[in-house]
Amino acid sequence: MKLGYRTTLQTDFDDAVARTREALGDVGFGVLTEIDVKATLKKKLDEDMENYLILGACNPQFAHRALGIERQIGLLLPCNVVVRDDTDNPGTVIVEAMNPDIMVAVTDAPGLPEVASGAAELLQKAIAALD
């Protein structure tokens, strides 16, 4: 099973973040959380790293269905989408979205595979739209 879906963009970090937010919104995902890993590690540990942002993306319909099937599935929500500079290729930004099938792998709840499949289809569509 793939951990996630990935694309690379030849652009700057801020543009990649804006395009990712737009692509997620176009397929029905909102961004509920945002973790600036670079800023957090600098503040907490005085460590430097490349731009690295984790967006917590949520599609309300799929989240509602998944929670109706298995309340503990909230431990795996929202779906993480990472936008990060490619340190090996300056001017390149990597965008990765988690594979919702991971939720299915940790529970055998009936009905969850269909929810994960639908969410996966939309996340793949959002990632593909960035190309």
From TrEMBL:
<protein>
    <recommendedName>
        <fullName>DUF302 domain-containing protein</fullName>
    </recommendedName>
</protein>
<feature type="domain" description="DUF302">
    <location>
        <begin position="35"/>
        <end position="100"/>
    </location>
</feature>
<dbReference type="InterPro" id="IPR035923">
    <property type="entry name" value="TT1751-like_sf"/>
</dbReference>
<dbReference type="InterPro" id="IPR016796">
    <property type="entry name" value="UCP021774"/>
</dbReference>
<dbReference type="InterPro" id="IPR005180">
    <property type="entry name" value="DUF302"/>
</dbReference>
<dbReference type="Pfam" id="PF03625">
    <property type="entry name" value="DUF302"/>
</dbReference>
